[in-house]
TrEMBL record:
Keywords from the named record: Exonuclease, Exosome, Hydrolase, Nuclease, Nucleus, RNA-binding, rRNA processing
GO-annotated cellular components: cytoplasmic exosome (RNase complex); nuclear exosome (RNase complex)
Membership in a protein family: Belongs to the RNR ribonuclease family.
PANTHER family the record matches: EXOSOME COMPLEX EXONUCLEASE RRP44 (PTHR23355:SF35), RIBONUCLEASE (PTHR23355)
Protein name according to UniProt: Ribosomal RNA-processing protein 44
Disordered as annotated region, ranges: 1-43
One Pfam family named in its UniProt record: OB_Dis3
Length: 680
């Protein structure tokens, strides 16, 4: 909800995931640049491995399948596997092919060869003899049949190092018993700092089916309170830290997991489900503990009143409604709906529009990152349909309120703890990172200024083609790929200019609004509790080095979660096209010597199409196999064009029609194939 897609990251609501991305790592662009330089001057950078400092073998193992390729050791092993039907059978030697194609095949010995030849398995590397072309390992377990959605999802989680194991009994022991109910004496009489806001009109706005509701909003006029012409906007966040205490098994586990992970068909929680979906979730019609922050807005300008600081308080609320984005949008658009809650939503939305204008005027970026939504079969969880996620003004309304609360939280904790506040920084991209965007724009006759975020934002706004409405979106997608990743950091480790959030054009930023699913927000809540004098600060919050280790772990877990989410999208896209092919529009987003990289807006797919036939058809190879095909093509890197052997010229951002289908390969592999259709 915080809108950081412009900052090299996204916060994915339930049921929404990032589309597969290609070559998003800057180091990959550097490698391509070095290779290009080598071709021009004839010098090829060459090195030799002289020693292994530290093994990076994964203790949990690697997802793999048995190699049954013809003429290979796996083929011979398959015969042994077929015969291995008794307990007395001798161990068979097999080659296991890891899912990660960067890894070599792994030689394993097992007596269960017959049972695992068609399974997705887990293997662990034990060693790599100097005289062997393959590392040696052993079979651990089977995840399920090859191609099965559950088995492949388990492989995705293993490869991304995302923990999907159940919570331990010691963790569940920390959860209050259900049903949990608000207690007047415990939560108000004995907590005089907590305000009773149960009469305040509050609602939440989330994706459909959302059960872990972190946040809710309120809006009321202050005329009756002696402040005519003013509004009080409230952002109410689940008070997770009232249930999640330091130095407990549940806190240690939440810190280790770092974040919840959203896959296409399931959610892996950072906290046990009774907390995420019940006790802490700000559901409609029930009393829940919250951490509230209030802002004074001028009803004329719809902007915060100058000189009036935000007010933080612990509270108890009773949400009037848990709305979806579509429901909230329908209410605001209905001119005949004058219900009090609808009036509140319109007031919040008016302020959100003004905040957004002010933020964009300051240089905040509005970029584009393709997000897709799957419609799943309720019984099998197989994808029935897939399409781009639709964003409404209601989404932007909630986004602006979350950004406002996060910025206010960053300012509050930094003021109280200048050296050990947990912040969210988005480093300014290095000039070389904009090379792909600048080349694409130059080839398209578009002038882009990347000297500052404001200059970039203005340039992107001006880069429009009336005859091609999607052109501007393509530019923003390319610009998004040039961004560095936003990361958590400890304030004392960075000077003020290094703490900025480039994408949001904010001098300070942090995460406060999603403590149910992000441990960073839990830390920020605890810092705010201490800053407000509500509780004594935990010792770990005053230890900058300990806080740095927490931030490093959260950053790693966030990246892993994103990788798992993207891989889950790729998997379900594969399953969807396994049942039916599709023909649709696509756009060239990059050119290569042996093909083009296309983006399919309808399905959010971005992948290479390699030239492998005179009729200029192509086949997607998401692993990059087949490099070297397309002989006879001519690449012009400056003009961003590639000319095929038949004379067809492809330019960046060209439109084309493609056919998408699944192509079966040898060794029980398959891939998503994209073929260019002839012009009509």
């Amino acid at each position: 909800k915080e809108g950081e897609g412009a900052a090299g990251e996204t916060n994915e609501p339930e049921g929404v995931s990032l589309a597969p991305q290609v070559a998003e790592d800057v180091s990959g662009d550097d490698a391509a640049k070095s290779a290009s330089g080598a071709r021009k001057n004839g010098a090829v950078p060459t090195g030799r491995v002289v020693g292994i400092v530290k093994r990076s073998w994964r203790e949990r193992g690697y997802a793999a399948s048995v190699d049954l390729g013809p003429g290979s050791a796996g083929a011979a092993a398959s015969s042994a596997a077929a015969a291995a039907t008794t307990a007395a059978a001798r161990a068979a030697y097999l080659l296991a092919i890891p899912v990660d194609r960067r890894l070599p095949k792994i030689r394993i010995s097992t007596r269960q060869a017959a049972a695992i030849v068609d399974q997705r398995i887990v293997v662990v590397i034990d060693g790599w003899p100097a005289d062997s072309p393959y590392p040696e390992g052993h079979y651990v377990k089977s995840l399920g049949k090859l191609g099965d959605a559950d088995a492949e999802t388990a492989a995705v989680l293993l490869e991304a190092d995302v923990d999907d194991r159940p919570f331990a009994p010691a963790v569940h022991a920390c959860v209050p018993p259900l049903p949990w109910r608000f207690d007047q004496r415990e939560h108000l009489t004995l907590q005089p700092h907590r305000e009773d806001l149960r009469e305040l009109r509050v609602c939440s706005v989330d994706p459909p089916g959302c059960r872990d509701i972190d946040d809710a909003l309120s809006c009321r006029a202050l005329d009756a309170d002696g402040h005519p012409g003013m509004l009080e906007l409230g952002v109410h966040i689940a008070d997770v830290t009232s249930f999640l205490h330091p130095e407990t098994a549940m806190d240690a586990e939440a810190c280790r997991r770092g974040t919840s992970t959203y896959l296409v068909q399931r959610r892996l929680d950072m906290l046990p489900k009774p907390l995420t979906e019940d006790i802490c979730s700000l559901r409609g019609g029930v009393e829940r503990l919250a951490f509230s922050v209030f802002f004074r807005f001028d009803a004329q300008t719809n902007l915060p009143v100058p000189g009036v600081s935000p007010r933080f308080t612990k509270s108890v609320i009773k949400s009037n409604a848990a709305l979806t984005y579509a429901e909230a949008q329908t209410m605001m658009d209905d001119a005949g709906d004058d219900a009090p809650l609808t009036v509140d939503l319109r007031g919040i939305n008016a302020c959100a529009r003004a905040l957004r204008r002010r933020r964009l005027d300051a240089g905040a970026l509005t970029l584009a990152s393709p997000e897709v939504r799957f419609e799943l079969d309720k019984e099998t969880s197989d994808p029935l349909d897939v399409g781009m996620y639709v964003t409404r003004e209601a989404n932007q309304m909630v986004e602006e309120m979350m950004l406002l609360a996060n910025v206010a939280s960053a300012e509050a904790i930094l003021k109280a703890y200048p050296s050990h506040a947990l912040l969210r920084r988005h480093p300014t991209p290095a000039p070389r990172m904009f090379d792909p965007l600048l080349k694409a724009c130059a080839a398209s006759g578009v002038v882009i200024d990347v000297t500052s975020s404001r200059a970039l934002a203005d340039s992107l706004d001006a880069a429009v083609r009336p005859e091609d409405p999607y052109f501007n979106t393509l530019l923003r997608i390319v610009a998004t790929r040039c961004m560095s990743q936003a990361v958590y950091c400890v304030s004392g480790a960075h000077a003020a200019p290094e703490r900025v959030h480039y994408g949001l054009a904010a001098p300070l930023y942090t995460h406060f609004t999603s403590p149910i699913r992000r441990y960073a927000d839990v830390v920020v809540h605890r810092l705010l509790n201490a800053a407000l004098g509500l509780e004594k600060p935990d010792a770990s919050l005053q230890d900058s080095e300990a806080l740095r280790l927490v931030a490093d772990n959260i950053n790693m877990r966030h990246r892993n979660s994103q990788m798992a989410a993207r891989a889950s999208v790729e998997l379900h896209t594969h399953i969807f096209f396994r049942k039916k092919a599709a023909e649709t529009e696509a756009r060239v987003i990059r050119v290569r010597a042996n093909g083009i990289i296309v983006f399919v807006p309808k399905f959010g797919i971005e992948a290479p199409v390699l030239f492998d036939a005179p009729e200029e058809s192509g086949v997607v190879d998401t692993a990059g196999a087949g490099a070297g095909r397309g002989s006879g093509t001519v690449l012009d890197e400056e003009a961003m064009t590639v000319t095929t052997s038949t004379g067809k010229v492809w330019r960046v951002f060209d439109a084309l029609r493609v056919r998408i289908e699944i192509e079966e390969l040898a060794a029980r592999r398959s891939r998503l194939a994209i073929r260019i259709l002839p012009d009509m």
